[in-house]
């Protein structure tokens, strides 16, 4: 099982003790503002179960994010394979979701950089994408800080959201191995 460390964080496999704080994070309307809505406890638990399997099978996934100094779980950051249909798929995405009280500390950027180092190192990927709603400017800033670029021609309507949904339109960011190494 792959674990990644940064100066301040451990990106690791999920523990049973992560279920409760992850459910609280997913129930927070501020955290889920740019998603279809808050998750039920059952849906949150099922997400952890799926991610654990992905990490075991691939060696990577959305790793649980723990602050080293305190041992506190604050969300996830990592790599995932989206399973919907879109013009840019198949691909591997880098993504994150952090508890509101962890925002603004650079945790997402730091952990996303570690995820990209793994993607372009041991995972041997040639490109990584990231996407979010057009309204999620904080995540877009993280994408830019980690060296990803945006081309409006890549933007798309998320197929899992109904036509006309306020979050339907998504921006797509990309980074290649060459860009990362440059």
From TrEMBL:
Coiled coil: none annotated. InterPro entries: Acyl_CoA_acyltransferase, GNAT_dom, N-acetyltransferase. Residues 9-178 form the N-acetyltransferase domain. It comes from the Bacteria. Signal peptide: none annotated. This is GNAT family N-acetyltransferase. It comes from Kribbella sancticallisti.
